[in-house]
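Hey team,

Filing this mostly as a record. A colleague (T.K.) asked me to run one chain through the structure pipeline before their review meeting, and I want the input and output archived in the tracker in case anyone asks later how it was produced. No errors, nothing strange. Just documentation.

Input sequence:
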Amino acid sequence: MAFDAMTEDLAVKAAQGDKNALEALLRRIEPDVLRHSSRYLPCRQDAEEACQDALMQVARNIHRFEGRSRFSTWLHVVVSNSARSTYRSLKRRSVEQAGELPQQRPDPRRTSVIAGSRVDILDAMEELETRKPDLIQALVLRDVSQLEYSEIAEHLQLPLGTVKSRIHEARKQVRQTLGEHYT
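Output structure:
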């Protein structure tokens, strides 16, 4: 989600309280937010739900955008958090609707390889977030949002070496969780 100068300018104006700029910004970023949400969630309806949640978070929290980093970097974090939150919510609802039946892995005969892989990866990321929350944000910004290491370091306000170390460790942890099927 790299945006042009006009989008970045709209974000600054919206952060300063300009409601018209906020409306224009939300319209402008919606397709990119949906596309980014789809990277996490294999079902289009789930991605649309995450997209709407992310746009609501932007509208509610734009005043927190300080302009220290680019708006696109700030937005990556919002969208990633929203998509992961939507996934956790869907998982919780699924368990509740199933009457607390034990969770089963997706049936590989009915699930595409890509969709099944995404679910496995989301589960592994969720487990990593529970065990080592300091690692997950750097991993998401690099491997899902595809930000440069320097952008991640700037956004997280960490030294570049620390960011690289966290990403390396997070990848190692996710690989261990996924097991031999993904190596």
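Quick notes for T.K.: Helices lie at 5-15, 19-40, 44-61, 71-97, 113-131, 133-144, 149-156, 160-178. The two ends are 28 Å apart (CA to CA).
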